[in-house]
Amino acid sequence: xxxxxxxxxxxxxxxxxxxxxxxxxxxxxxxxxxxxxxxxxxxxxxxxxxxxxxxxxxxxxxxxxxxxxxxxxxxxxxxxxxxxxxxxxxxxxxxxxxxxxxxxxxxxxxxxxxxxxxxxxxxxxxxxxxxxxxxxxxxxxxxxxxxxxxxxxxxxxxxxxxxxxxxxxxxxxxxxxxxxxxxxxxxxxxxxxxxxxxxxxxxxxxxxxxxxxxxxxxxxxxxxxxxxxxxxxxxxxxxxxxxxxxxxxxxxxxxxxxxxxxxxxxxxxxxxxxxxxxxxxxxxxxxxxxxxxxxxxx
Amino acid sequence: xxxxxxxxxxxxxxxxxxxxxxxxxxxxxxxxxxxxxxxxxxxxxxxxxxxxxxxxxxxxxxxxxxxxxxxxxxxxxxxxxxxxxxxxxxxxxxxxxxxxxxxxxxxxxxxxxxxxxxxxxxxxxxxxxxxxxxxxxxxxxxxxxxxxxxxxxxxxxxxxxxxxxxxxxxxxxxxxxxxxxxxxxxxxxxxxxxxxxxxxxxxxxxxxxxxxxxxxxxxxxxxxxxxxxxxxxxxxxxxxxxxxxxxxxxxxxxxxxxxxxxxxxxxxxxxxxxxxxxxxxxxxxxxxxxxxxxxxxxxxxxxxxxxxxxxxxxxxxxxxxxxxxxxxxxxxxxxxxxxxxxxxxxxxxxxxxxxxxxxxxxxxxxxxxxxxxxxxxxxxxxxxxxxxxxxxxxxxxxxxxxxxxxxxxxxxxxxxxxxxxxxxxxxxxxxxxxxxxxxxxxxxxxxxxxxxxxxxxxxxxxxxxxxxxxxxxxxxxxxxxxxxxxxxxxxxxxxxxxxxxxxxxxxxxxxxxxxxxxxxxxxxxxxxxxxxxxxxxxxxxxxxxxxxxxxxxxxxxxxxxxxxxxxxxxxxxxxxxxxxxxxxxxxxxxxxxxxxxxxxxxxxxxxxxxxxxxxxxxxxxx
Lengths: 298, 622
What we know:
The structure holds 2 protein chains of 2 kinds.
Chain A: H1 3-22, E1 26-29, H2 34-47, E2 56-59, H3 66-79, E3 83-86, H4 89-93, H5 98-122, E4 126-128, E5 145-148, E6 176-179, H6 187-197, E7 208-215, E8 218-221, E9 236-241, E10 252-255, H7 261-270, H8 288-294
Helix pairs in contact in A: 1-2, 2-6, 6-7
Chain B: E1 14-21, H1 27-37, H2 43-56, H3 73-78, E2 85-90, E3 95-100, H4 108-115, E4 120-126, H5 133-144, E5 149-155, H6 164-181, E6 185-190, H7 214-220, E7 233-235, E8 238-243, E9 246-252, E10 257-259, E11 263-267, E12 271-280, E13 283-285, E14 287-289, E15 293-298, E16 309-312, E17 318-329, E18 341-345, E19 348-361, E20 368-369, E21 379-392, H8 399-402, E22 403-407, E23 414-423, H9 426-429, H10 439-446, E24 452-456, H11 463-476, E25 481-485, H12 486-491, H13 501-520, E26 524-528, H14 534-543, E27 549-555, H15 558-564, H16 569-574, E28 596-599, H17 605-618
Parallel strand pairs in B: 1-3, 1-4, 4-5, 5-6, 24-26, 24-27, 25-26, 27-28
Antiparallel strand pairs in B: 2-3, 7-16, 8-9, 9-15, 10-14, 11-12, 11-16, 12-13, 12-15, 17-21, 17-23, 18-19, 18-22, 19-20, 19-21, 22-23
């Protein structure tokens, strides 16, 4: 492994150990994607031979790909880790779906609100996430230990200064911190690391024939029969894969032949668009991600 | 024979660099230009840039490359950079992390955040404006943070008609500054971020310039060698204890090499042991070097916890409870010397306060100026005292054990960053004289348990009246007491102190120390002081032993105090004749966990003193 990746790995482990030492009740945000897979792998390394001293939390919007849920349960069981799954039941009762309420409102209710509910209910004082600074412009601005007010808000104009590796983890009752061990990793680093460490990832990342419909130039997978089809719209089988994973109606597939990690790396290095292009919620309004983050989104 | 070290071959050396300088010198545009011309921008990002440029761009009829970096809404709206942005890119030669810092003085602490931990700083200067105060401030902060390679980017050279004289004059002026700040290398480059001259491609109009382009300079910069040849040091982050058979100490090796069998000394306790096992990122190994995250198992059952430093036995880690350090102040409120803060150094967290400001620095003239305090973004050279010995090193030799931050105990804000110049040995020269008669024996003779009754409240709230009444009653009961009254102490011990925040802190510190002496003599000590700040009352509390400090909040509403105005002080304060008067133009922070809360509107002074006497009985003080 290159010294570059070893250094990134060491930095992530260092951040994990700071979290474990400084917080009373941390939680690992496990979103099942490739970054979460790396995040989990690093957590195992940081604390071995102990198990990571925190549970995993998955916010289940009920609209995740079925293969994601299966992969999640398999991993947690194999590793013997405690997995907390939380769904915003009020949102379900109110019938909030990406089709009826629009991607922005849906995300607010089923992801951001759900996350805040779970963090408050379990009184977690630190939520560890897999966000990377190279993903998006407002994420490029975020600290490694990012302070959140008692109502989970982020104030990007007034972040705590952060020097060297001296993370200020001190908070008052009700406040919390979002910790980002993968801050300085890039998408290429993640894939290279997955290949070298043979980290298991969800099968959706690999190209396979899947039923899709084309909407606004984007390929949406028909993962179950809840997706309303327009008249004359019929799913067709195409060889596709996903660069990022989210809720299936909001995550576009790309046509691809890449069915190995090596092929994915080759494709990633040659890519002309960013991985988040397929994430509708990043683009539903100007400054989308920052706005969501200020309100508590990861 | 020593074990082989892990190799570092096949590394594309990573360079972390900072772009800084004054507002509008084109920092974000330069990074944007670098990404754009290196074809490092994705198509969807390019399309977004075109849309954004049309909406909020500041470049007429063109792409505003700064928008690639300025990611916050407020930044895009105002066309400024507020916080540091991290951008990642790679050329064929190496990988880069570009850290784009804000130029406004108001956001200096974000710039300083960016400067900690980079290998090189790009300091931009607008060719038309030359070296400005902010250029000097940023250069000084880079030097303070130990960044010793600089690229001086003289930007917007196109707007001077590519004038070599302009470039030479600016370079000469900066070199004078650079010499004082002792940078190891400075490369000056004339360029235009907007047009792309000398960024990736040579500028056609600058035949007179023969040095490297900006990208060439970045690709050629040496990366600070790893600290493998320094003695082994590892601050302990976390104790790994999955079961009774395993006890490992986890941390990142700050310097040197650890090998199985090596003798180690643990600071600050100076306990000795040897390395038995090393668990690295790849599993069990025979040796590990600086930068690796490891878990060490030692030969002996020694007491090691978070904050301790495991070091090579031959060159033990230095330990002190006082240091001299350069400090950059980051808080809106100015530094009050003497106020207790939380210090984070290495992995240790201790209490610390600034005991003396030796001088502040005028960033414009480089002069040392006398200072009683440091304001936002000011840099000073200070002495600090810690409440317990910690492992440390001068920042110059060890960035991990030489850098620290100070955290406010109430707001938890990071209020300062510091780098240690050297340790002070005063504490070790001034040994504590052990006395045969102790507090307990003195108290026994007096047939009481000593304590401090700390009365806090607004001026005119009734503190002194109630305290006086209580002392009379204790006296009548045959108890030994002493009353320290705010006004009286200010006539003697504290007559050199005024009423600024800084002086108020010192006022309380002296009274708390005095109260501690009285308690040590076995005396029940009553302190009647406005003591408006929580952090100072906490300082007093922490000077005393657990259970010895009883905070009595004499809670009288401001309006009531002002109506009473027994000394006519509120009238004067309202008229502006007294400055910094608590409750009027200086804050009072009410206690949050006072042992006794006396709401005087519903109580006579007699009833209030009854409550206090009852409490003293309950707790066995009398």
